[in-house]
Amino acid sequence: MGRITEEYIKKHPKSAANAKKAVELFPDGVTHDNRRFNPFPLAMERGLGPKKWDIDGNEYTDFRTGHGAMILGHSHPAIVKAVAEQVAKGTHLSSSTELEVKWGSMVKQLVPSAEKMRFTSSGTEAVMMAFRMARTHSGKTKIIKFQDAFHGWADGPYVGTDLDNPNNGIPKQTRETMVILPYDITAVERTLDNDKDIAAVIFQGNKVINPSFIQQLRAITKQRGVLFIIDEVVSGFRWSRGGCQELYGAIPDLSTMAKILAGGLPGGCVAGRADVVDTVTKGKIAHPGTFNANPLSAAAGATALAIVAKEPIGETADRLAARFRKGLNDVMSKMEVPGCAYGVSSIVLTRFGADHDCDHQYCPSGGKAKGWSPEQKNLLVQALANRDIYCWSDSFILSATHTNDLVDNTLEKVEDAIRAMRAEGAI
Ligand SMILES: Cc1ncc(COP(=O)(O)O)c(C=O)c1O
Fold first, then answer.
1. Which ligand 1 atom is at minimum distance from the Cα of 259?
2. Domain 3-74+312-423: which CATH class?
3. Does domain 77-310 sit in CATH 3.40.50.11810?
4. CA 20 to 30 Å from 271, out of 53, 107, 167, 407?
């Protein structure tokens, strides 16, 4: 065992003990695939703004930021107040509420495609409902999605997402309802022209790709009368106040949302053209769901969206991410580590160890270059955790509460972590 891992184990005894109990309860000891970690994942206790504390009392600068939900930082005072007030009034009233109307009005105000909507409990559920609406509205069956895109873990939307984990448990009949294509506009046109059973095309709004691709998708689906869905679960309220669709001027027929939408609580939404969303009216599509627009999520969501609407939240996070992206590229050059930091808006993506040409934005050729192994990336995350940075190795998600100082300090720690990896011969 190298020194980085030794230090990681020494620094986190309570997390290690917690992980030992967790493996008895949960497959791989975790409750979300992205939290699997060697030698064990850290157990966190609380968060405030851009900081988080683990159960051993270590303080971190957080770059996982609630899987992208916490653009306002952890425990934003206005959200804490709204949720605390609502907890005291009741967490489930089995009724319509003024809060859900307030929340829905904020979505409609901010998201260009949102004429009408339904709330769900997660992004996965929002995508499931979008597919059902598209099929009911069009009378067609198949959905086009793009290779490796992630649209939640439901049967249909998950098809084609993970090549290492090829759709186990998903019936063949469901797989046949999905058409998986490369990011190639000619392939989409050809499929739309040859297959008359396509109900919709879905695009992942946070996929980093030249915006002309998204604009062309909108144009060719419109020309052929096929519905276009943008999955704004990550990009919504982050790429711009109105998401990817507003930033790139490609207004879809349906949008799916979650994460920032619900202010850090569980919640999703499918919104779009009134005639498409109205397929949920009585006698067409069923849409129950015990926790749809529950009062806590509605209170947190309406409060978060009002803040995003009024304050320079996205702008601040974008500016900090640009500083971090540039700084990471500088660190890689200085340390002679091939690779890049790239991306748009406030999520910084990395390809450590990949030798390739890159524009540090869309990284057009990066996907073909091989970078660090999973073990090397795991070690980087350990080395950064030892230096009080909590992150994944491939993406760093900024909030509006990070600061220039935190960004600069993190860059120094990345440099130091790379030095430590080199010292033990790991890179
Ligand atoms: C683009 C995208 N769509 C859908 C989902 C699923 O959302 P949820 O995790 O709320 O079910 C995610 C989750 O990360 C996502 O990134």
1. 10
2. alpha beta
3. no
4. 167
